Amino acid sequence: MKKYKVIILSLFLLIVIYYQLSQLTVATIKYFPLDTEAEFSDVSTTLNLIDQDNQIPKLQWKIQSQHQQDSYLDQNVGLLYENGRLIGIQSKWSQSNDPLSQMTELNAEPDSLYQAISYHYLELHQPSQSITSNYQMTTDQLYVIKQDPLQFFHYPKSLKDQTIASNIDDKINQDLNKNWSDLINHYQIDQDSYYAIPFIDLYRFQDEPLPGLNLDDSKRVIAQIWEGLYKNYILPASQQQTQNEIMPLILLAKDGDHLLILFYDHKGDPEQLMQKINMSE
């Protein structure tokens, strides 16, 4: 009887592990020509503080999406940063056309800024056998402040909160700028030839073009950025038990020829991705 119990338990664990890995390691984020008619009816990324009365409060991180058109594949990919460093990845995909929802909770550290960005992706197989895609990005942020009782806010409103947020931002920017400068120097990049865009700020260009590009080219380039990051940054990081990588920096060439994405991998080794832009006429 003991032998059978061990076998059943082992099979159960294998099924759980397979499901978890399949949700993280299937490389489904791929750029196809954009179909602007394939719209999402609801997308969101939310950060909230729960269990505030406990000694260790929890940060609740939710990602949701819903669409009405039939699609071949839906996927949500989300990244969470604490003070500019990666601490969490969520990825979920489906072929059922049902709403996608995922949620996780992490310990919240005081005097920290949490920033989350999500990529909601649709892949559509047309009757003509062509493949198209569409996407939307969502984001949220939360400041957690060490006070008694613990305080938190998404965006500072009062002068006191603005001062606290500014102090936290300054520390984060100091850390990020040092690491980004090290990467730029390592690859001998002429920074004056590029527009610098922190990865979390990519969301700002959802409805307005990247510098030097028109809106159509900008949407295509952003989709290709996510494709490259998913394969070379998100998937490798998701296979590690812990993450602490700094946020990637996107460098967009001012002549519109290409862009670079700089980051450190989970081993601390520098990485550079290059992407040709190929602007439309």
Strand arrangement, major sheet: 4-3-6-7-8
The fraction of residues in strands falls at: 35-45%
Low-pLDDT residue intervals, each spanning 5 or more residues: 12-25
Helix content: 25-40%
Distinctive features:
alpha+beta, 281 residues, 12 strands, single chain, four-stranded antiparallel beta sheet, 27% helix, five-stranded antiparallel beta sheet
Outline the structure in words.
This protein has 281 residues and is an alpha+beta fold. It has helices spanning 2-25, 159-186, 215-238; strands spanning 40-50, 58-67, 73-82, 85-94, 100-107, 112-125, 131-145, 151-153, 194-198, 249-253, 258-264, 270-276. The strands form three sheets. A five-stranded antiparallel beta sheet has the order 4-3-6-7-8, covered by helices on one side. The chain has a four-stranded antiparallel beta sheet with strand order 9-10-11-12, sandwiched between helices. A three-stranded antiparallel beta sheet has the order 1-2-5, with no helix packed on it. It is globular and about 60 Å long.
Question: Short description, anyone?
Answer:
By secondary structure, this protein is α+β, with helices and mostly antiparallel strands. The protein is about 25% helix and about 35% strand. The chain is globular and about 60 Å long.
